[in-house]
Design brief:
Helix content is about 20%, strand content about 35%. By secondary structure, the chain is α+β, with helices and mostly antiparallel strands. A six-stranded antiparallel β-barrel has the order 9-10-11-14-13-12. Strands 2-3-4-7-6-5 form a six-stranded antiparallel β-barrel. It has a two-stranded antiparallel ribbon with strand order 15-16. The radius of gyration is 25 Å and the shape is globular. The two termini are about 50 Å apart.
Length: about 325
């Protein structure tokens, strides 16, 4: 059964990376050896012009160079509560992505990347790292803003586009840290617009963007960009039968992100109109049917009041 998965990553993959490095070294050693002084035959070789592909820079290559300095890798430490029967709590580390919002040190990411964090570290593409503090978060849109204290000259804010102009078939790229592999770029298209996805707290996020650009665990909080380098969404979820990227990813629309981020940076709290009901189709297409009512909401209070009034007659 397919299920949507939030793209926060858990355990490190140092062992896998070490294995890859070892295998690479083995191949390199098998191809070249620097030992020995014996004479070897010589031959005259006419120099050839380099192949054209060696000097060609694609538009995506240039986009990567322009945009990557503004994308960051985020590692989060958190502490879990102790279990029953005197079992102690533990610490865990997760990893996600983010991107620079302004030259004051504000960085946008997903709320589910930093939720419950006891420590947040930001790693820049040039190898520098900095501790971050949480400016604010909005679980209902799954957006958070964190802040680092670094020189403005070291920060490279990304250009924010508009999600209202996004169209299916439009080429897009995603940049982030899938499985901890920082500064990874993948490309694809916008598969659909106007999707509704669910935030971790159950709130619906409307007008989300569906893309087939491969995104995986660790891409959470990273940007979905146009080929012009404008951010049109924040990568947040995948729908997958096996837990990996099946080419069905979802990004939170940047128009909603801009509103949330500006409010949080200004020190405000994001407010949402929330009735508290879930609506589905009534049988035979005869209208709408309330399928559930959330506890403690205005909808529940209204229904209880209506029930009391009807029972009094």
């Amino acid at each position: 059964m397919n299920q949507k998965t939030f793209l926060r990553r858990g355990a490190p993959i140092a062992a896998a990376l070490a294995l890859g490095a070892g295998a690479g070294a083995g191949v390199y050693a098998g191809l070249w050896s620097g030992g020995g002084t014996s004479a070897t035959p010589t031959a005259t070789v006419t120099a050839a012009q380099p192949a054209a592909v060696m000097t060609t820079t694609s538009s995506l290559t240039q986009l990567y160079k322009d945009v990557t300095p503004g994308v960051v890798d985020i590692t989060v430490d958190s502490t879990s509560a102790g279990g029953g029967f005197g079992q102690p709590g533990g610490t865990s580390q997760a990893e996600g992505s983010g991107f620079v919002y302004d030259t004051k040190g504000d960085i946008i990411t997903n709320d589910h990347v930093v939720a419950g964090a006891t420590s947040i570290s930001v790693h820049f593409p040039d190898g520098k790292s900095a501790k971050a503090t949480l400016v604010g978060s909005d679980p209902s849109t799954d957006i958070a803003v964190i802040k680092v204290d670094v020189a403005a000259s070291e920060l490279h804010p990304l250009s924010l586009g508009s999600s209202k102009d996004v169209q299916p078939g439009q080429e897009v790229v995603a940049i982030g840290s899938p499985f901890g592999l920082a500064d990874s770029m993948t490309a694809g298209i916008v598969s659909a617009i106007g999707r509704t996805i669910q935030a971790p707290n159950g709130y619906s996020i409307a007008n989300s963007i569906q893309t087939d650009a491969p995104i995986n665990h660790g891409n959470s909080g990273g940007p979905l960009l146009t080929t012009a380098g404008d951010v049109i969404g924040v990568n947040a979820q995948i729908e997958s039968g096996g837990g990996g990227s099946d080419g069905v990813g979802f990004a939170i629309p940047i128009d909603a992100v801009k509103s949330v981020a500006s409010t949080l940076v200004a020190g405000g709290k994001v407010q949402h109109a929330y009735i508290g009901i879930r609506v589905g189709d009534a049988p035979n297409g005869s209208g709408a049917l309330i399928s559930s009512v959330s506890t403690g909401t205005r909808a529940e209070k209204a229904i209880r009041k209506s029930t009391r009034l009807n029972s009094s007659h």
